[in-house]
């Protein structure tokens, strides 16, 4: 079990701790009680399924290990736990509430499985009623009756950070000042300003359990999944539990460079959270290159005690993996730290849908009408928690009025639905959303020193709407489409942002059809936004970007030319220059079609000659991928194609570099016969002279660079050549070279990384519900329309 942290100065708040337990629903409350009982009684406490429980929600046989002195000593023996949840605030328990349960008690005693009967409820229990319940239980043969009410549960939660980690929803159900110290309280308020509603509806899933285990044991987790499956919510919840349970200082960073900049070696307890680590809607090669370059420092921070959580859409991470050098950082291949968030059981899906509808703003008649269809909707494929959240809000469900049978369709088609919903908004509201979209994090009203040509002023002028009306529109959209809060760990000034990335994407699909609005966006975006938010005719778009009409191609091309990075503009910092060029080239590779590239070459006729100046190593060069894009569009001359192939061939033999075998752009640029000829040259010229290549590689190692990391690209190259040549004699020569590399590393190595700290491996996470199918019997949605 977890040990409680050392005592910290608490914020003094009036009154006893109070959590809104009535809002949990019967199933979630039963799961919470199961966690509390395990914490009190130990791992052997058993929770029964709700079907045919015979009057026992849980049971235990053994010694009472109670930590609460108010309960007192209880003899060993069989314990029975019965849970009674009330879905109305401040309900006072009466014997009539327990009529069905009390009828089963005599049978439990007769079967000798109930010596101690523990009734757990979230309701208020008066002293007189407590005596009546105990007397009734003793009359039916119970030796040790015990009643634990809502106040006792709230006190248990407030006293144990382990409980809060197991059931993080409670952070959103009560007063943080009851459970956090002063420093953590300030950070916690900032975090909850961002995710209070998300935490109030949060459901413990296997993905969350794995994520907490990865952060605890390895200091790192990468959360993967489709859009709107809950990656960011899990990351934010981990941040909250790390703040409370581990005393971590929480920093939300936007890039690896920002993470490294905020890392303080003298303050090891830091928690870093990076959303969309490798791109928001598409893979951004420049970000991945930055991660690859920064990864040694980030791993050093983790070894020193920092905790790092990254999120990424699964298709983006698949594109990013090739550049992350997993061979150098094996942790990225470890299934224990890479968690697929989208894998949800039917029980988890049902609880997520229940929470969002129960805590949303739907009227009671909607919940009653929808109830028969909710089990079916919980099995929608794919199931997206964000779609479940929208189902709980009237702003998104006008199309379902009188047609609750369409709920499953609602869950499965979020993008089409959003386009319709945005189209129904007023002009003022669409203007407000346009402002948030254009500025990403909108401070409103605009600061007085904001230039008159800024996109904010231009959009206000475009729509002809006053500041006051826009302010009202923003407020009306809060909690449904927008959130108003300070970014966790970032700028303390509150700003407006889209509540979820898919809402931003859905709005982009709407404005893409308005040519005038697109033009304003193109002119108002900063350089990074131009490179990441505009699409100029790419053939395989992933996610929704703003599509630029062809009539604006020349204007965008001139803008892109003016943005080309230079070494001087990067402050003569090679690393910054390299990353900036990577982002610039990624625009041509990922966001452009033939029509735009043709127009661009008119504006910038020397692009191809500059692209041919690519440098080794090929894994670090983005220019060949741009050349391949031009070649695929029929815009690269044969002379330039041959020049690129000849340069790569020289690298293949001289460095050596197998990037021409590894990366797909070379399958586009190289003819099959050129590929075979180069393999023959590798076989006949390079392989017999590998000893020379190894010695040259060893000699070129910069001072201070880890020998293993320095040799990893060469080791990978030789592996590619061995597989491609498939020759016994060649294999022996390569194996000898690899042995020489091992000797070189051993002789050169001056310092080694410390072994990663291994956390506790005991079984520590009490499971609160079955992870398989929803059990037969009472539906989780039975009380969805309760008061």
Describe the structure.
The protein has 787 residues and is α/β, with parallel strands linked by helices. Among the domains are: 21-159, 3-Layer(aba) Sandwich (Trna Endonuclease, Chain: A, domain 1), CATH 3.40.1350; 166-340, Rossmann fold (3-Layer(aba) Sandwich); 346-412; 414-511, Orthogonal Bundle (Arc Repressor Mutant, subunit A), CATH 1.10.10; 678-748, no CATH class. 50% of the residues lie in helices and 8% in strands. It is built from 34 helices and 14 strands. Strands 1-2-3-4-5 form a five-stranded mixed β-sheet, with helices on both faces. Strands 7-8-9-6-10 form a five-stranded parallel β-sheet, sandwiched between helices. Helix 10 links the parallel strand 8 and strand 9. Helix 16 packs across helix 20 (501-511), helix 17 (427-439) runs antiparallel to helix 18 and helix 23 packs across helix 25 (594-603). The chain is globular and about 95 Å long. The two termini are 37 Å apart. Mean pLDDT is 79; it is low at 1-15, 181-185 and 750-776. Residues 751-764 have a biased composition (Basic and acidic residues). Keywords: Endonuclease, Hydrolase, Nuclease. Pfam families: nSTAND3. GO terms for molecular function: endonuclease activity. This is Restriction endonuclease.
């Amino acid at each position: 079990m977890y040990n409680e942290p050392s005592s910290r100065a608490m914020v003094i708040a009036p009154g006893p701790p109070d959590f809104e337990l009535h809002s949990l629903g019967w199933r979630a409350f039963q799961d919470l009680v199961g966690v509390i009982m395990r914490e009190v009684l130990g791992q052997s406490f058993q929770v029964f399924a709700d079907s045919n429980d015979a009057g026992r929600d849980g049971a235990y046989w053994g010694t009472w290990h109670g930590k609460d002195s108010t309960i007192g000593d209880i003899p060993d023996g069989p314990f029975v736990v019965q849970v009674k949840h009330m879905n109305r605030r401040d309900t006072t328990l009466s014997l009539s509430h327990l009529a069905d349960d009390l009828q089963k008690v005599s049978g439990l005693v007769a079967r000798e499985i109930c010596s101690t009967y523990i009734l757990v409820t979230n309701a208020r229990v008066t002293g007189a009623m407590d005596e009546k319940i105990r007397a009734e239980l003793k009359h039916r043969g119970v030796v040790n009756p015990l009643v634990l009410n809502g106040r006792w549960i709230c006190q248990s939660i407030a006293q144990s950070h382990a409980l809060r980690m197991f059931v993080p929803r409670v952070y959103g159900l009560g007063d943080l000042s009851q459970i956090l110290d002063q420093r953590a309280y300030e950070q916690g308020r900032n975090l909850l300003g961002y995710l209070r509603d998300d935490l109030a509806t949060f459901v413990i899933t296997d993905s969350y359990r794995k994520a907490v285990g990865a952060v605890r044991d390895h200091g790192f987790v990468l959360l993967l999944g489709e859009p709107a499956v809950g990656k960011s919510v899990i990351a934010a919840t981990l941040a909250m539990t790390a703040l409370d349970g581990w005393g971590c200082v929480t920093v939300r960073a936007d890039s690896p460079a920002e993470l490294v900049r905020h890392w303080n070696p003298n303050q090891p307890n830091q928690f870093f959270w990076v959303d969309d680590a490798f791109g928001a809607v598409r893979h951004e090669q420049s970000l991945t290159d930055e991660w690859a370059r920064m990864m040694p420092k980030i791993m050093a921070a983790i070894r020193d005690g920092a905790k790092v959580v990254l999120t990424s859409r699964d298709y983006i991470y698949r594109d990013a993996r090739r550049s992350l050098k997993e061979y150098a950082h094996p942790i990225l291949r470890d299934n224990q730290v890479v968690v697929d968030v989208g894998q949800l059981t039917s029980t988890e899906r049902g609880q997520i849908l229940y929470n969002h509808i129960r805590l949303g703003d739907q009227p009671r008649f909607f919940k009653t009408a929808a109830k028969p269809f909710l089990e079916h909707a919980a099995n929608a494929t794919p199931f997206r928690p964000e779609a479940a959240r929208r189902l709980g809000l009237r702003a998104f469900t006008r199309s379902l009025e009188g047609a609750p049978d369409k709920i499953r369709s609602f869950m499965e088609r979020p993008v089409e639905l959003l386009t319709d919903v945005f189209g129904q908004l007023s002009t003022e509201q669409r203007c407000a959303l346009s402002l948030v979209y254009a500025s990403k994090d909108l401070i409103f009203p605009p600061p007085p020193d904001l230039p008159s040509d800024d996109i904010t002023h231009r959009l206000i002028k475009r729509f002809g709407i006053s500041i006051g009306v826009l302010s009202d529109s923003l407020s009306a959209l809060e909690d449904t489409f927008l959130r108003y809060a300070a970014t966790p760990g970032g700028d303390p000034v509150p700003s407006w942002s889209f509540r979820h990335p898919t809402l931003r994407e859905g709005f982009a699909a709407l404005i893409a059809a308005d040519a005038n609005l697109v033009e304003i966006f193109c002119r108002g975006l900063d350089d990074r936004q131009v490179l990441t938010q505009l699409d100029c005719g790419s053939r395989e778009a992933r996610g929704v970007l703003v599509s630029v009409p062809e009539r604006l191609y020349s204007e965008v091309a001139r803008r892109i030319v003016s943005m080309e990075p230079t070494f001087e503009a990067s402050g003569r910092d090679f690393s910054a220059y390299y990353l900036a060029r990577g982002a610039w080239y990624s625009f041509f590779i990922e966001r452009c079609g033939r029509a735009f590239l043709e127009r661009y070459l008119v504006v910038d006729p020397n692009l191809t000659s500059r692209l041919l100046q690519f440098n080794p190593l090929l894994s670090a060069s983005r220019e060949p991928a741009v050349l391949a894009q031009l070649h695929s569009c029929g815009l690269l001359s044969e002379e330039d194609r041959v020049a690129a192939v000849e340069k790569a061939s020289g690298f293949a033999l001289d460095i050596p570099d197998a990037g021409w075998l590894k990366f797909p752009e070379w399958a586009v640029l190289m003819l099959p016969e050129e590929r075979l000829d180069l393999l023959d040259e590798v076989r006949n010229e390079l392989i017999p002279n590998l000893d020379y290549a190894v010695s040259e590689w060893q000699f070129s190692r910069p001072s201070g660079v880890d020998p293993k990391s320095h040799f990893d690209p060469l080791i990978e190259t030789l592996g590619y050549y061995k597989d491609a040549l498939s020759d016994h004699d060649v294999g022996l020569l390569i194996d000898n070279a690899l042995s020489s590399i091992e000797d070189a590393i051993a002789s050169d190595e001056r310092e080694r990384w410390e072994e990663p700290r291994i956390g506790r491996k005991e079984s520590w996470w009490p499971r609160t519900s079955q992870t398989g199918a929803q059990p037969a019997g009472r539906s989780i949605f039975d009380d969805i329309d309760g008061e």
